[in-house]
Amino acid sequence: MVLPNSWSEVNNLLNSFGGNYRYQHIQKTTNMIKTTSEKYIASKAINLSKIII
Q: Please, are residues 33 and 2 in contact by the beta-carbon 8 Å criterion?
């Protein structure tokens, strides 16, 4: 999840780029978000009755 004002800042920065540069930066930003985003990993249930204290 990316905060909306983060996208606004990216958009503001990209407004100064023209032509192919804008597209390249959109692609790089999208790829960076995909590779750095956290992924949800489901946890498994633990049977507490087998734990010895």
A: yes
- Between CA 47 and CA 44 the distance in angstroms is 10
Residue 50: DSSP 8-state: G
Q: Return the DSSP state at 49.
A: G
Q: What's the pLDDT score for residue 1?
A: 56
Residues 6+ apart with CB under 8 A from 17: 25
Q: Is the pLDDT of residue 40 over 70?
A: yes
pTM of the model: 0.48
* Contact call for residues 10 and 26 (beta carbons, < 8 A): no
